[in-house]
Amino acid sequence: MLAAATATLDRNWRDGYTLPSPNLYPFQWNWDAGFIALGLAHVRPERAISELRSVFRGQWRNGMVPHIVFHRPADNYFPGPDVWGTDQVASRPAGVRTSGITQPPVFAFIVERISSLPLGRTAEWEAFRREIFPSLVAQHRHLYRNRDPLGEGLVYIQHNWEAGTDNSPVYDAALEAIDLTHARDVSSLRRDNRTVAAAHRPTDVNYRRYLALVDLFDACGYRDAEIAARSPFLIQDVLFNSVLARSNLALLSLARELNADAATVGEIERWYEKTSAAINEKFWDAERGFYFPYDLRAGRRIAIKTASGFMPLFARVCDAAQQRALAHHLTSSFAPSAAWLLCPSVAPDEPTFDPVRYWRGPVWVNVNWMLHHGLRQAGLNDLAERVRSDTLRVLGAAGRWEYFDPRPGIDPSALGLGTDEFSWSAALALDFQCNPAAF
Ligand code: DGY
After folding, report:
1. How far is CA 118 from the centre of its chain?
2. Which of 18, 27, 188, 344 lies 20 to 30 A from 82 at CA?
3. Which whole-number Å values give the CA distances from 169 to 91, 287, 314, 320, in the listed order?
């Protein structure tokens, strides 16, 4: 397993950064780079810093870290840099092309996790922590200043691609509210559904909506305030805000360790406290015992059970009763029997559950990694171990696929979906195996 995972990372390495998958995602992706850096820190430590530096080379002057950095041209992906139209945006850094949206801010907690490894005890890493700290603060500040219009401590995403959980059914209603009268048909431009099975990818009508949003952002010059005023899609996402809360905690430790000035430490403390409290105030549904995202435009909670609802465990914001309620869901609605693979991205009892279509049911390794650590923090050690061993078992039997069919009764070697040789699946297999420490 270790050799195979390392081989995947070596294969996808491109002189300074790692492609999530050369055939499906031929550039550098934001949160992928965070998880990949963690895997590299175990087996190719000399590359981990380079991975992180490369993705931050794309950081905009307003602090936003774009979801794709197009370091070098590739023609096997849509939408590429010309479609995003960010070349004219003043905030974009010189010399590198990027998309115009962001992804869950994983970097602060990745830096914390790497700090506990042998690489983390080197002078080079110490210097790198000092180098990256201001960029991390700028990233979080951008989110709080531009994506939290009500000052609640919860930031919104502008696009389902910002959540990372791209075609999760929680975004369906907001996407369906997009007026497609003047939207272009992009079905013939897509490359993804020719590279991997179309049944594993988002539908054409959804891609049309995704691109309608990109075109709107381009028309708004990527100005957040204008997008907030005009876009039908403004969602406060549970995974995104939980990742932000966990990263705030990591950033706070880092600020203290680096003796940052009192004003910055105070600012990060306020971010952490406000977001942690708001996750429980706005996302927690006491009746159902689960966390749900909130549609700011429609003014309502989106009551569909997805694996993102477990991420407040990772953010360490749940009390004992909430932990019990989540554990109950994990072993009932998310696992109709003990033979199901944990954790499906959508609960199998939801009408929108689809066991093979991307984020509408399949199991994802990065979500399982955050879930495992969240369960351990809550003292739910048996469940945490089940998530870890399910993940390693399927990676061992099927290979380092992008996502996995959670249903029982299928030959384990046939459970892999999407693209094979997927970098973060390899990277997190390495952390699962090589670092038993809780996090
Ligand atoms: C894709 O192309 O599917 C990516 O997830 C978008 O970021």
Report:
1. 26
2. 18
3. 32, 21, 22, 29
Return the residue whose CA atom lies nearest to atom 4 of ligand 1.
161
Query: Which of 21, 23, 24, 25 is the pocket-test mutation for ligand 1 (most atoms within 8 Å of CB)?
Result: 25
Asked if 37 and 75 count as a contact pair (C-beta separation under 8 A), the reply is no
**pTM score over 0.90:** yes
405 belongs to the catalytic site:
no
Rounded to 5 degrees, φ, ψ at 44 are -135, 65
Are 230 and 220 in contact, with CB atoms under 8 Å apart? yes
SS3 of residue 368 by DSSP: helix
Give the β-pairing of 294-295 and 290-291.
unpaired
Summarised one tens digit per residue, pLDDT across range 228-282 is 999 999 999 999 999 999 999 999 999 999 999 999 999 999 999 999 999 999 9
C-alpha 262 to ligand 1 mean position (Å)? 39
Q: How far is the CA of 162 from the centre of ligand 1 (A)?
A: 9
Task: Give whole-number Cα distances, 404 to 8, 42, 128, 202, in Å.
Answer: 17, 24, 35, 16
- Which is the catalytic residue, given 402, 405, 421, 431? 402
* H helical segments located in 85-223: 107-115, 123-146, 160-163, 172-176, 192-195, 204-219
Residue 414, classified by CB atoms within 10 Å of its CB into exposed (0-12), middle (13-18) or buried (19+), is exposed
